[in-house]
Design brief:
Structural class: alpha/beta
Helix content: 25-40%
Radius of gyration: 28 Å
CATH class of the largest domain: Alpha Beta
CATH architecture of the largest domain: 3-Layer(aba) Sandwich
Number of helices: 17
Length: 521
Amino acid sequence: MDNLIIERIKKEIENLGTNADIVRVGTVISVGDGVAEIEGLMDAKMSEMIVFDNEEGKSVKDAIENKDTIYGLILNLEEDVVRVVVLGDSDKVREGMQVRALGTLLSVEVGENMIGRVVNALGEPIDGKGKIENTKTLPIEREAYGVIDRSSVDTPMHTGIKAIDSMVPIGRGQRELIIGDRFTGKTTLAIDTIINQKNEPVESRPICIYVAIGQKESKTARIVAELKERGAMDYTIVVSAGAGATAALQFLAPFTGSAIGEYFMDQGKDAVIIHDDLSKHAVAYRQMSLLLRRPPGREAYPGDIFYLHSRLLERSAKLSKEKGGGSLTALPIIETQEGDVSAYIPTNVISITDGQIYLDTDLFNKGLKPAINVGLSVSRVGSTAQTKAMKGVAGKIRLELAQFRELEAFMQFSQDLDEVTKARIDSGERLTEVLKQGKHVPLSFERQVVIIYTAVNGYLEDVPVANIGKFESEFLSFIKTQHDDIYESIKGDRAISEATESKLKDAIKSFKDTHKELISK
């Protein structure tokens, strides 16, 4: 009898179905300054997502689908509690509130439909154009590609700025820092790079991602309006975590931007990401770390601030053909104080990146725009990422300008200059004038090649310095209308053939003969 009962119980147990939904639940024990302390999540993971939910019996799925749901990100694992940064309005989080762990790392939805849109640090649209139907979810932080998965940087990433494309060339997959004091044109330089991508063939045009970290919302709105006006929003995504956003959202914004860029890179496409700027990102992370009670280090920044930026920028790469051959180019921006490039954050980011473009306040105030200091600016990729045409004409520029800067300082103290020195100064003045460029007027690389060829081969010696700007604009228009085959040849061959050079020389002579008013008597 007992055996029958036991067998019956065994069958009942085997046939017992369960629909139990295991939910890891914790409780908020304190909250303040955007940081919540939670007990009960003993098996929590670093960077795991949680959802704050005070409604009993509500499923995690329902909580996630609710638009008013507030998320959190676990950033401190302690003995009895975890500390969480609140990704939203922390005023709505109260002591005693129930918290559910989602078991996933913080992720963002990405897809082609993001192009042309403005999103926040969580990838949610903030431009009033409705929901974005995305195709994939990616973690905002993931391990960067290893050395074997990468290939060397050899494809130019044209900025449209003569001084950069000729002297500090950037390649697709490179990380080039833009550094300088406030109001020296750092953002303008980055926006011009985005606008210039319109000059690239549609099939190889990179997707541009502009990440605004701690910027005024009005400044971001102006940038979006400018990009729309120039038709650049057709291939651009703007990620905005403005000055009014919490420190946590400002901290997440560049990682979200990188995840979006990696989506396109993994498809074999090219992408460019601009972090504007990482100084404010570091300040946001410092603020968050101090609230999380992490020990402060140099300049009150946490000890892992270098690791924060290195793991962000290391995700930029030029992938091997086996991995699809896509690329993600990073242009981080750093703001210096009184030109001090030896401060903590500037030196950190300089050591992580593959070169820097240094914008000088003195040059900017003199009217030399873009105010690129040739001596302090460098590209560690070098001419590998230049077209043959640009390499051929731009070789002498850096040396000539460096010599001119030395002589310019010397010239102030001496009146009697020999003929060679005078000639070098005259040449340097004309070259400096040629490299000046207005705001939001990037030049396609074939136009840059034509005007730089004209300058370095002495064809501007009889043009007064004051007329150089007018000479350039009229000459480039003349080539476009009368000799467009020169542009097409340079664009197609990526080099200046002997036949093209001969045509260009004839075109210069023809232009100077018909525009004698620009030549000195």
